[in-house]
Amino acid sequence: MILSLVLVFAGIAVLVFSANALVESSSNLALRWGVSLAVIGAIVVGFGTSLPELAVSLASAVRNDIDLAAGNVVGSMVANLSLVLGGAVLISQASISTSGRRLYLPLSLLSTLVFIFFIRGGISRWEGGVMILLLLLSLALMYRKGPEEETGLVSSPQRDKSAIAAQFSLTKELAKLIASLAGVVIASYGVTEGAIDLADRWGVKSGFIGISLIAVGTSLPELVASTVAAKKGKYGLIIGTVLGSNVFNGFGIGGFIGLIAPGESEDGSIVGTLDTTLTLTAVALSAIFILSGRKIVRTEAGILLVSYIVWMILVGA
After folding, report:
1. Is residue 23 within 8 Å of 222, Cβ to Cβ?
2. CA distance linking residue 75 with residue 53, whole number of Å
3. CA 217 to chain centre
4. What is the arithmetic mean of pLDDT over 59-72?
5. Which whole number is the average pLDDT over 148-162?
6. Is the pLDDT of residue 157 over 50?
7. Is the separation of the CB atoms in 152 and 45 below 8 Å?
8. pLDDT category, 125, cuts 50, 70, 90?
9. 48: Cβ–Cβ under 8 A, 6 or more apart, which residues?
10. Cα separation of 239 and 243, whole Å?
11. Residue 208, Cβ density class (10 Å: 0-12 exposed, 13-18 middle, ≥19 buried)
12. Pairing of strands 94-95, 295-296
């Protein structure tokens, strides 16, 4: 019990520290390379914060537990669209740029829908190959069609990029980025393991732990990175991290599961969970488009958070 509590609290502390370093190094690299924070967030941070989901899902699939693998991915995608995005907006209500609405949100929605379609009943190797191809196409679109300025949920204040870029070493910033990503991933595992042990000790049923608690644990990197980005005013990283991570979760992890460990579902309950997830995803995106138009305010953020709580209750029922 004590060890689990230490894992949870120490893991959270390491997560916060690592995410802080991650945001800073990502911002500096964006300035150095002349690309937007949203692109860096989607491709670099989005992929890095999806590593926990990738590791957990692949390990589950290799053990022929496609249901746990799919449940972790689905739960993480739902958490990104509701818990992570809602939490970041509570800190800084913001507006979505035109490019964000036309590129990142559609790609995130498409990856979710494609993953849900392919994973129902299991996944084959050819389906995995299709998702990997879609991932590569998405990355190309993110890089080539992404906004040319620091945009995401809101535009960041303009700065003298050449002056800032001259203040840091490329090698140092790359090392800092890699180290901070490693810290985020390792800490997320510590928090997840500790939380699972506590849930077992407190009598929470295993199905709820697998589809929700593990998903929340592996989504902690996105949550912490987005929260730190909001506090630091690096708003371009928020939408890139959240929605870029979803693209990696759906196309990337789904594709790797299919290529490395294809298999069939042995637990029919995953179908009901996926149906619920599809509904919540539509609600979350509708809240962004319909309720707020080009702006997400704290009221909509509250709706996203409440919708996630409702989903957790339904999954645990």
Report:
1. no
2. 10
3. 11
4. 78
5. 45
6. no
7. no
8. very high
9. 22, 181, 184, 185, 221
10. 6
11. middle
12. antiparallel
CATH value at residue 292: 1.20.1420.30
Q: Do residues 58 and 194 make contact, with C-beta atoms less than 8 angstroms apart?
A: no
What is the structure's pLDDT at 317? Answer: 60
Question: Residue 157: phi, psi to the nearest 5?
Answer: -60, 140
Rg for the chain, CA atoms, rounded: 18
The per-residue pLDDT for 308 is: 81
Q: What is the H or E stretch that residue 64 is in? A: none
| β-bridge mates for residue 296, sequence order | 94
- Give the domain extent around 144: 37-157+204-316
Phi, psi of 94, rounded to the nearest 5 degrees: -150, 165
- Residue 46, in any domain of the structure: yes
pLDDT tens, residue by residue, 255-293? 999 998 888 776 555 556 655 666 566 666 655 654 555
Q: At what angle do helices 66-79 and 51-62 cross, to 10 degrees?
A: 160
In a domain, 193, yes or no: no
Instruction: Judge whether 54 lies within some domain.
Output: yes
Q: Where are the alpha helices (DSSP H) in 120-169?
A: 125-145, 161-165
For the record, the structure tokens of 275 come out as 């149906």
Phi, psi of 296 (to 5 degrees): -105, 115
**119-139: average pLDDT:** 89
Question: Longest C-alpha distance within the chain, in Å?
Answer: 57
pLDDT digits (tens, 9 = 90+) for 193-208: 887 787 778 776 555 6
Rounded CA gap, 166 and 189, in Å? 36
> Does the residue 72 lie in any domain?
yes
Reported pTM: 0.74
Q: How many domains does the chain have?
A: 1
> In whole angstroms, what is the distance from residue 72 CA to residue 317 CA?
17
Highest mean pLDDT among 80-94, 205-219, 292-306: 80-94
Instruction: Label residue 53 left, alpha or beta by phi (over 0 means left) and psi (-120 to 50 means alpha).
Output: alpha
The rounded distance, in Å, linking the Cα atoms of 112 and 75 is 11
Residue in the block written with tokens 């997840």: 192
